[in-house]
Amino acid sequence: MRKYDFDEVIPRRGTNSCKWDSSPFEDILSMWVADMDFRTAPCVVEALVRRAQHGIFGYTHVPEAYYDALTRWFERRHDFVFDRNHVLFTTGVVPALSAVIKALTAPSDKVIVQTPVYNCFFSSIRNNGCQTVINELYNDNGYYRIDFEDLESKAADPQTKLLLLCNPHNPVGRSWTRQELLQIGEICLRNYVTIVSDEIHCDLISNPCLHTAFASLNKLFYEESVTLTAPSKTFNIAGLQVANIIVSDEEKRHKINKALNINEVCEINAFAVEALIAAYNEGEEWLENLKMYLSDNYYFIKRYLTENLPKLKLSPLEATYLAWIDCRATGMTSPEITARLLEEAHLQVSDGTIFGAGGNGFIRLNFACPRSMLQCGLEKIHKVLKT
Fold it and tell me: What 3-state DSSP class applies to 134?
């Protein structure tokens, strides 16, 4: 028996939850935005309670214990060793992404994304006056691969300055292999394109896959890239707003730090500091139990679709808690599918088109929830989409 109760249904309506309180339907079932419906690790809750009991919440200094917890976690879990002096903290991976783009590009420069991909990549590029360049992933019977020939062509454009690498990939669930990452890195180095690796889902890897931090592959990749990390997805603490930017190159780091200050996202709060330290120092047992539960949820989806909706195809999952489901056999577009699920079943999932044109006909389903809630969601999909 597992030590932690992930089957407990915890009501979230009325808690100012973006995921649950943004719908007008009182009986909404929300399976869209990427946060989990589980309580965080007990060690995190205990650390926050201790801090709250102090009762004074002034401006916060980030202590050495923060950097020690961060660096030891990545060395222990991912064999990624980095200098704590190369770390910049901020309020989230999206603010980090925007600051990096602001720092390392000029307006009208080009930035490569590998679609279908996390939708905030597009807005971060657009908000900094840059052009989005698409290196479309190709769908090999549900398993997504990189079009390296196209990537080489796009990277060779002198206006192309950055590649936003989603590692692991949201929404298609890939955990890129060492060989794939090496090939990406070699192409970008040849063409003077800086890789910005968003590794927010790095701890949520499905067995037997392993996460490879891009910057860990060799010294040159570490020196030439920027890595974005956060404990938010791993420990379900996105609302505490904390993330880290790892950048070795001193000039790049200075520019990014300046951009963080210009954007005024250069401070983190007292609770964020305590949560990260507790999570990374004491949260591994909870995480391993969580991963087992998420794996069981994924296979529950797979069995359910096979038995009840065989025309819907579930992509193989190597990472994240986000199911990428091919619904093209229904003959409907993604906006049509999500609208019908919302209106007819009060089920909210993510429309595949927000991740790029290649997502049309797909939905993204967040399955980081109790099994009973997941079953209810699948039954709602069956009711609306059965053919």
Answer: strand
